[in-house]
Amino acid sequence: MGNSKSSVAFKKDGGRAMKNSSSEELDSYYPVRPECLADVPKTRFKARVGKTLSERRWKAAFSKEGYLDIAGVLRRIQRGGIHPSIKGAAWEFLLGCFDPESTFEERNQLRQQRREQYAAWKSECQKIVPVIGSGKFITSAIVSDDGQPIASEDGQPIESAATTINSQDNNDAVPADNGDYDKKMLQWKLSLHQIGLDVVRTDRTLVFYENEANQAELWDVLAVYAWMDNDIGYVQGMSDICSPMVILLENEADAYWCFERAMRRLRENFKCSTNSIGVQSQLSTLAQIVKTVDPKLHQHLEELDGGEYLFAFRMLMVLFRREFSFVDSLYLWEVMWAMEYNPNIYSSYDDKRRPLLSELLYDDKPNDKHKLKEYGKFERNNLKTGAAEQNSALSVFLVASVLETKHRQLMKEAKGLDDVVQILGEISGNLDARKALDEALKVHKKYMKQAKKS
Question: 305's torsion region: left (phi>0), alpha (psi -120 to 50) or beta?
Fold first, then answer.
């Protein structure tokens, strides 16, 4: 088996005296299995003194009471990402888990409340499927489509988990004559083995997941999330989003809440129906952007029956996880989140009324330059141009920038959609995250300028 979670996920180097780190040194925080080294993209990101947010800078950003200088933190992250030693802690703020204007004591209380809440939800799931929390996980179906337990070769229900929908043993967990609850439970049970199959495939090149307990933790977090999200449940691709949280945050409950906050941004991407796919709205936005900034390329793609931009589905679905090395994808995410940061994000997520997110994010627009610095660069540009409420994700402009850089090749060589897919597939491992984000901001600026004219 592989190493324990703590020893693999964090190589405590004391970022107090951070030096310029090579990509090889950063890779050592998330070691790759030797037999997989030739199969993973090369890491391009390097931590740099004066640019990357170091452990020393991170600690200095807090006041004595615990208030965080979010403007200074955002500035540093946007310049050079986050050092691995503090990545998880910083992500919790970027994703809206905590309010920068809260104290150490307030955050400790909130963290404890969330851990207790997660434990309660996990216990609820465990009553139905005992394998949850056992350090094991499921990769075979435990119930049939009609809710009947599926037995293993020895005649026993798989992993003792396949209780029937209205099992007498689960009277506490299952309200009597509750059709909606029964349907929810069945759909959840049917998803558990798919989660397990995806867990086995997720970041399998990393030493971290040689340890079955770490795989089981990822499965537990996704299983509990699927149980709590009545609308969407689990959809393939979520494991790619969740895995870094499990690796970065040593407490499982903290990883869950970080993932839950990330999904607040992304869950619409996973909302599929018989008539549409989850990322449809983003693909439509992408089409509009390319049509505006590069009409010739858009027309060419339309002639190839690619006007719906389905070839960009994977990039948007899992935020470029497949196009970059593990280290580079984390860097890409945190810089994007920093650029998109809105200081109202915590209060918007914490609002019990659950109004439209845009109503809360933009109902208190900043009037002074100091407050404006608490917004990320991308979000700040949106506020200045009056386009904030459109809420277009930076990732969409990132895809547009990739298409822009491939303009000449796509125009010359793409004779069909297969060619488009092949050309875009060539970017895997060959894309510089920093340059790609810079290009995305340029495309955004160009798009807003053109849109304003029309």
Answer: left
Locate 381 and state its tokens: 């540009």
Whether residue 22 contacts residue 46, with contact meaning beta carbons closer than 8 Å, is answered with yes
Return the H-helix or E-strand segment holding 125: helix 104-128
Contact 276, 37 (CB under 8 A): no
The closest of 353, 381, 374 to 445, measured between CA atoms, is 381
How many residues are listed for the chain in this entry? Answer: 454
Which pTM does this prediction carry?
0.87
Nearest CA to 214 out of 36, 338, 31 is that of 31
- pLDDT tens-digit readout, 225-281: 999 998 899 999 999 999 999 999 999 999 999 999 999 989 888 887 666 667 888
pLDDT in tens, 208-223: 999 999 999 999 999 9
What is the spatial distance between Cα 337 and Cα 340, in angstroms, rounded to a whole number? 5
Burial per residue of 81-113, b for 16 or more beta-carbon CB atoms within 10 angstroms, e otherwise = bbbbbbbbbbbbbbbbbbbbebeeeebeebbee
**Residue 32, phi then psi, degrees to nearest 5:** -100, 140
- Rounded CA-CA distance 322/278 in Å is 19
**From CA 411, how far away is CA 420, in angstroms rounded?**
10
| Count of C-beta atoms within a 10 Å radius of residue 345 | 25
Q: In sequence order, what are the beta bridge partners of 206?
A: 32
Burial profile 368-394: b = 16 or more Cβ within 10 angstroms, e = fewer: eeeebbbbbbbbbbbbebebbeebbbb
- Tens-place pLDDT, residues 81-96: 999 999 999 999 999 9
